[in-house]
What we know:
By secondary structure, the protein is an alpha/beta fold. It has one domain (6-286): Nucleoside phosphorylase domain (Rossmann fold, 3-Layer(aba) Sandwich), CATH 3.40.50. 28% of the residues lie in helices and 22% in strands. It is built from seven helices and eleven strands. The protein has helices at 68-78, 135-148, 169-177, 187-196, 222-246, 273-278, 280-283; strands at 6-10, 21-26, 39-44, 47-53, 82-91, 101-103, 106-110, 152-154, 157-161, 182-184, 200-209. The longest helix is centred in the C-terminal third of the chain and has 25 residues, at 222-246. Bound molecules: the ligand CSC[C@H]1O[C@H](OP(=O)(O)O)[C@H](O)[C@@H]1O and adenine.
Amino acid sequence: xxxxxIGIIGGSGLYAMPGLxxxxxxxxxxPFGDPSDAFILGELExxxxxxxxxxxxxxxxxxxxxxxxxxxxxxxxxGVERILSVSAVGSLKEEHKPxxxxxxxxxxxxxxxxxxxxxxxxxVAHVGxxxxxxxxxxxxxxxxxxxxxxxxxxxxxxxxxxxxxFSTRAESNLYxxxxxxxxxxxxxxxxxxxxxxxxxxxxxxMVTDYDCWREGHDDVTVDQIVAVMHQNSENAAKVVKAxxxxxxxxxxxxxxxxxxxxxxxxxxxxxxxxxxxxxxxxLEKYL
Length: 287
Ligand SMILES: CSC[C@H]1O[C@H](OP(=O)(O)O)[C@H](O)[C@@H]1O
Ligand SMILES: Nc1ncnc2[nH]cnc12
């Protein structure tokens, strides 16, 4: 039985979800190892939700150390159909100011040390990723920002870098020349894996800084980020609450829900039994 319909992934600055009732903690085991922390299950706006602190409570995991597969698989195992992800980002454009929120609809991959797929080990699948976020969830975020009185822009390109060091100025300027909007270290793998798991996913990227490209301004530091993060996380909690309340109910009509339908290339007869078993939660209906 499904324990939660909506997943919330809290990033830097959002390590808990205020307002949950009937709270219980659950550790979820997955074939891919341990998620970042225990899930916090509870009710918010009369919807069952599962909250996960991406870097663990206390912020113990580097972006590179995150077990993205375990985090997303565990969401699937809990019954989650839609994920609201919350993240801190640097701004690559003057117009995106600290405390503004942006819902990216595209990504550029600058990571190099992460596993970004559930597949392999005898099963090959290629999901579509031209539209990497769920437009329904992004638009729920956008409306929730408006309802709460926070600047929330729908659309933009998120550069996902490996980190943990921030970018060089040359890199920052390169991303600006590509027309990118914001930069962070965590969202792309979540979006890819959520798509493979047929979970709707969108991110609310909360601007904390101007990275290091802006002449006449200090380069980004953690101190600077933390100062803005406090205000951002208060606003984030309000927006997430409003988004949960407004999330559509019932059958999903977006393409995320059937992303795997035509994605599996491997002849069903040659998929190893062990892999079938490991991925049964994702593949069962197509094998
Ligand atoms: C706090 S500075 C860099 C750190 O912040 C972002 O984290 P998250 O995406 O989990 O909110 C960024 O991706 C880095 O991990
Ligand atoms: N400037 C920046 N670069 C990468 N990740 C970030 N998260 C917050 N600000 C960031």
